[in-house]
Amino acid sequence: MLKIAIVGIGNCCSSLIQGLFYYKNVKTNRDSIPGLMHNVMAGYKISDIKPVAAFDIDKRKVGKDLSKAIFSLPNCTKVFEKNIPNLGVKVKMGPVLDGVAEHMKNYPEERTFIVAKEKPVNVIKELKKSGAEILINYLPVGSQKAVEYYAKAALEAGCAFINCMPVFIVSNEDWARKFEKKNLPCIGDDIKSQVGATIIHRTLSHLFAQRGVPIDRSYQLNFGGETDFLNMLSRERLKSKKISKTESVESQLAKRLSYDNLHIGPSDYIPWLKNNKICFIRIEGRQFGNVSMDLELRLSVEDSPNSAGCVIDAVRLARIALDRKISGPLISASAYLMKHPPQQFTDEKAREMVEEFIKGQRER
């Protein structure tokens, strides 16, 4: 059994929990299953993953069983598995800290957060009581203090840590040493999607470099209609997100571009899109004879299930590390599944490294 705790019961959490039951009967690696990169990993099936603790700050989720909270407003992702049994996991009130941007209160209740009036629980105590082995962080972009609070809680409670958002914990040397000293593995930072804007932009940039076509200018524009994009209307919360996405793409370029020639980041909030994310990518390069060429791409994808396909592997990779008593950042898992890992590799290389790690041929 893989016992997980989750902070932030939003759309990404909803997709992950739905997936645990959608794929509950997948027991072998023999068949190719849509949406899965690994059916079974080192003997661990998806049905082995069990939520045991959950934390949020929204009054429509706090106090509810996790099975109900994942379908509560302002969540708006697609429901692909509605038959979720009662999980016996009550969503507990966490500390707000900087988890809610000031501008969020100016929007209709069905689109934004409504902070519960309950007193925050002792998160460390709740983690220990639940027996959680892995803590998954889904807090909103810009929640620096809140993420650090939960990272410390994971350290004190003895939990591995999966950081799915762009506050730099796993890729920060000081935090990495803290997890090493506690003999706990960590994976981060900022979850990729299975096939999303960043992975496509990275792949195309790497392709251009391999084919001898230098990139002169490029942009990636993203917009959507859920609380993540509403939260990111506050530009001061975007610093780490922009660094994360830009560094992920820049790492694949033959030559780094100036700030003026590479723009990557969230662009706007369009409520009716809900959890659908639209991305536009443009790449301008020069081919044989220094002749210019342009590439333009449009991507439309349901954002949260796209990331859950990576988190469901991160959970099992973290458990493998716990089993093998591996501590600190998991280099292979972070490089393959995260935008801002401690070390960047091409996605092909990172996948090879993950497969080696699963087989025990690579330490981390």
Your description of this structure?
The protein contains eleven helices and 13 strands. With 364 residues, the protein is α/β, with parallel strands linked by helices. The protein folds into two domains: 2-192 and 305-358, Rossmann fold (3-Layer(aba) Sandwich), CATH 3.40.50; 197-302, Dihydrodipicolinate Reductase, domain 2 (2-Layer Sandwich), CATH 3.30.360. Strands 5-4-1-6-7-8-13 form a seven-stranded parallel beta sheet, sandwiched between helices. Strands 10-9-11-12 form a four-stranded mixed beta sheet. Helix 5 links the parallel strand 7 and strand 8. Helix 1 packs across helix 9, helix 3 (123-130) crosses helix 4 and helix 10 (331-337) packs across helix 11 (347-358). The radius of gyration is 20 Å and the shape is globular.
Counted up, domains total 2
> What form results from the Cα inertia axes?
globular
CATH topology of the largest domain: Rossmann fold
Q: Which strand order do you get reading across the main beta sheet?
A: 5-4-1-6-7-8-13
Instruction: State the helix count.
Output: 11
User: Which stretches are low in confidence, meaning pLDDT under 50 for 5 or more residues running?
Assistant: none
Q: What percent of residues are in strands? A: 15-25%
Helix amount: 25-40%
